[in-house]
Structure prediction request, 326 residues.
Amino acid sequence: MIVTTKQLFAHAYGKYAVGAYNINNLEQTVGLFRGNLGKSKSNADPVDPATSAPFILQISRGARGYTDKRFLEAMIRTADEIFPESILAVHLDHGTEDACYDCIDSGFYSSVMIDASSEEYSKNIEITRRVVDRAHAKGIVVEAELGQLGGVEEDVVGSVCLTDPDQAAEFVERSGCDSLAVAIGTSHGAYKFTGKQGLHFDVLEKIRRVLPEKYPLVMHGSSSVPQEWVERINNAGGKMKSASGVPDDQYLPAAKLGVCKINIDTDGRLVWCAIHRESFRDDPANFDLRPPGKLFMAAYAGYIVHKNKMFGSAGQLESVRKTLGS
Ligand code: G3H
Ligand code: 13P
Ligand code: ZN
Prediction:
């Protein structure tokens, strides 16, 4: 069942965060749906109430252009039929104004992100407000971003600029956005921290205090870059040096401070890369795509289960369903 992020955040606020996972292809989609229902091995496994979770499936502009955006939409609709117990929001990740309008008009997305964070402050408000007005007219909710993460966001090369708590309240009020992505020390990609940096919980706390009660915050660039997966990649011929991410034990403290959505893309790519490298290393005569594909779907589902446990969303699915009255 496709719902809005707003509905998911109302249930999660202050208790846990909802995982927002990027997808690009079929195997990621299947692994993602299975993992959020606690089915690690196959579509036919029973739903596991102890680990099943609501989730956000997010699609970047890069993903929409990778093959054709209509393939993604068709895959998600089909997955929603094959896994009828699922509760998810479908979200545009890092949208431009045009990409937001395209998604709003498609009638498929329940949520869009307008990322005008590289614009000057008042321009960011102005653009976000236009998107909010068009989205709200169709019952679609909007995430906006204030501050800039490090790393690469699509074609925007970000230079780190933490969110200014003094601007956050005014930004939310004037733009009308439903949730706010904040820059509190994370960055996109596999190389987040070089030394002892971590999340700026002090900034997060200040932002939370100035915003309206129970206002949902979003954390981008939140992959944990598990060393296990980096080592597996490197042991199978990869060359990823000094990769590091957000430690698993930082997610719940952030959720308690109002972070309701945690974005994960890089970790899914690491799982994909490790499994495919190992598979072809271990069976060099193989040229069939299905053996690594099957291994990947199971491994990705297992990864999602682990991540949802770290976010506190594992085991929340039935309670969300009751709250939604469905
Ligand atoms: O924040 C960016 C996401 O990780 C999307 O990455 O543009 O390569 O799909 P992508
Ligand atoms: P990661 O690169 O840490 O997975 O972040 C993904 C993200 O923020 C997508 O918007
Ligand atoms: Zn992001």
DSSP finds 13 helices and ten strands in the chain.
